[in-house]
């Protein structure tokens, strides 16, 4: 298992030791009061404190993460599409047990990640399953460990398989991306959003932020454009970045009325 440095706060893996974590020094994240701290996958695995967590999150969607949570704490989603399993977003922790459990589920054909906060150990995942990682080119500067497995894409949409499409909304980060699965949610359509479109405790609305920990709102023009981009898509549910962060019903309307509410308050 790799000994390349992992930021303890955000889980980003870097190609070589360094003093700072650019992800955390950016105003959308933070360096904790105690200062920058590092670990690596080999240390985490040897400590034995983290265990894989693999649980169903919805029809054809398997959550993938760790227990307890590590770094930012997001969970990934294994999308069991007709074209093959696909990993949406990335969990920082990876060990042989987790690789084995995903292999038993049929492995994965590729990985796509919503934004740099979840890049984490993406290269380790790509090597473990011999698959590409799709990232929007607008966020290329945040890649901490360059690798041939990383496939940069441009523009507004990308079909990563016959039944999965990436959409660059530009919320939170310039490359902020969501995934549309038309056959998800038993044919009603599913939108996988990380925290580009944030599922909030009030499931009748979603949130849009430039920085979540530092409470910086997203620019109105960006939110307006994102709502316009999503308007033509059909989806009955939204799956966010956290365990059980799901809007189960009326999801398309939830996005549109949330954008209108947001613009009313910040414009």
Automatic annotation (TrEMBL):
<keyword id="KW-0378">Hydrolase</keyword>
<dbReference type="InterPro" id="IPR036866">
    <property type="entry name" value="RibonucZ/Hydroxyglut_hydro"/>
</dbReference>
<protein>
    <submittedName>
        <fullName>MBL fold metallo-hydrolase</fullName>
    </submittedName>
</protein>
<feature type="domain" description="Metallo-beta-lactamase">
    <location>
        <begin position="73"/>
        <end position="238"/>
    </location>
</feature>
<dbReference type="InterPro" id="IPR001279">
    <property type="entry name" value="Metallo-B-lactamas"/>
</dbReference>
<dbReference type="GO" id="GO:0016787">
    <property type="term" value="F:hydrolase activity"/>
</dbReference>
């Amino acid at each position: 298992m790799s000994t390349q440095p992992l930021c303890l706060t955000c889980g980003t893996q870097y190609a070589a030791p360094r003093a700072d974590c650019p992800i955390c020094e950016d105003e959308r994240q933070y360096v904790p009061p105690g200062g920058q701290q590092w670990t690596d996958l080999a240390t985490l695995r040897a400590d034995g404190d983290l265990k894989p967590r693999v649980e169903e999150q919805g029809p054809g969607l398997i959550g993938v993460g760790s227990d307890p949570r590590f770094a930012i704490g997001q969970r990934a989603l294994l999308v069991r599409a007709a074209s093959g399993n696909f990993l949406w977003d990335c969990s920082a922790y990876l060990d042989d047990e987790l690789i084995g459990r995903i292999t038993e589920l049929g492995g994965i054909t590729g990985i796509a990640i919503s934004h740099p906060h979840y890049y984490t150990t993406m290269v380790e995942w790509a090597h473990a399953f011999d698959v590409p990682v799709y990232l929007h080119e607008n966020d290329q500067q945040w890649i901490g460990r360059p690798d041939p497995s990383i496939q940069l894409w441009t523009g507004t949409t990308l079909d990563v398989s016959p039944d999965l499409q990436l959409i660059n909304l530009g919320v939170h980060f310039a490359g902020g991306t969501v995934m549309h699965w038309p056959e998800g949610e038993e044919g009603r359509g599913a939108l996988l959003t990380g925290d580009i479109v944030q599922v909030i405790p009030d499931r009748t609305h979603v949130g849009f932020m430039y920085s979540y920990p530092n409470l910086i709102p997203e620019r109105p023009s960006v939110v307006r454009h994102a709502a316009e981009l999503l308007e033509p898509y059909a989806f009955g549910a939204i799956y966010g970045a956290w365990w059980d962060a799901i809007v189960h019903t009326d999801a398309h309307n939830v996005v549109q009325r949330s954008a209108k509410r947001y613009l009313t308050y910040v414009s």
